[in-house]
């Protein structure tokens, strides 16, 4: 989801559409639709490709050292400075090249005429409310395959490729069918169960690793007048931020893959049943903050920061988004989801983390090599550290935090990733099938169960029906894990 879709003027993060922040795919606004139809029908020629440069140890992508570079950046919550700083490095390395840097909040409005004319920029940060639909761009062959970038030597250690330096799941997120990688997600979001370490300590409790321990902690909180959980009741597709990785922990990655693949009976797996029943137990035992089904994301987060509830499923953007109401001594922390028991397939610490802030190089870019080289610079340790220090967010680069004084939430997120190791899952429903995930599975399915209006069995049956309908819908482009 990144941290730029639906930003507010005050610098906070508008969250109505932020289910897409980790993957940031498929947000379709009215201007985006006009872009897609125009883009799909365009056969315009446009500008020619610049001549490639000579490949060398210092120029592994063969950048034309005197060719101009055209870079369009979404100017959202991350701001412009991190990108400007990376551009300065490009200009230092290629002093004959003139870089045109264009920050904008209107990606589609700015780029539609250029895509239609066949002369798109060389590098685009495709984010924000006017984000172009990735699935359609890929389907219409509008994007360049970034494999040459991934296979090039990294800035910091030529013995490692750029691919070798990335966090788990980043490469896979940029893929749709097969090996080509169409998108480089630059930011990195940690999803899980967020809480105040101070409040948890006040209960003389530790974060629960098994569900029996979770129920015990919630009961202890209830006796103190504190709800165990709250969530964005009006947008219950937030619940999967902790529920989906729990399903993966209990049943293994293959369960999540089957769900993503829209396989028959995928939702009927015992792990899904066990996890749905566990969450439903929170409802039946009165551990959900009263009135939660009527709260939006901001209201639920505010109640949580006020200490009315102990846990909330969310992503790492919450540190910035809830900053106005979060006490200075809140001591924000995140943990991987609690499991069922020792029979779970994956260890405690299994977490959902994935990329946001999608960068693309258009297939018709005049200087595609330059666009990829700019990304290679951004994926260096120095640029990554600059980004993290400036905007309090991790990047796709697997590191870049040494020597930085991390905020509590960021520090906790880094620790959670270290604990997870390779046990990082990345459900793809939210970027492959937006409507299915949000409105059907999220609102009509999980939302009704968490409101106490449907049982787990009824919910699973309903969701499987929705998934089967999507699988049979020929108007939907279908994707599968390779």
Task: Write structural notes for this entry.
- Keywords: Signal, Transport.
- The protein is α/β, with parallel strands linked by helices.
- The protein is built from 19 helices and ten strands.
- Strands 1, 2, 3, 4, 5, 6, 7, 8, 9 and 10 form a ten-stranded mixed beta sheet that branches.
- It is globular.
Short précis:
The protein has helices at 30-41, 81-93, 107-116, 134-139, 147-150, 170-173, 197-202, 211-223, 240-251, 253-260, 270-284, 297-305, 318-321, 368-378, 381-391, 408-420, 429-432, 434-450, 456-472, and strands at 69-74, 99-104, 123-125, 184-196, 227-229, 309-315, 332-335, 351-360, 394-395, 424-425.
Overall 3D form:
globular
Supply Rg.
22 Å
How much helical structure, as a percent, in the residues?
Answer: 25-40%
Average pLDDT, rounded to a whole number, is 89
Class by SSE composition: alpha/beta
Task: Point out poorly predicted stretches.
Answer: 1-35, 40-46
Figure out the total of helices. Answer: 19
Give the SSE order as H and E letters: HEHEHEHHHEHHEHHHHEHEEHHEHEHHH
Question: Strand fraction band?
Answer: 5-15%
Q: How far is the N terminus from the C terminus?
A: 22 Å
Number of strands: 10
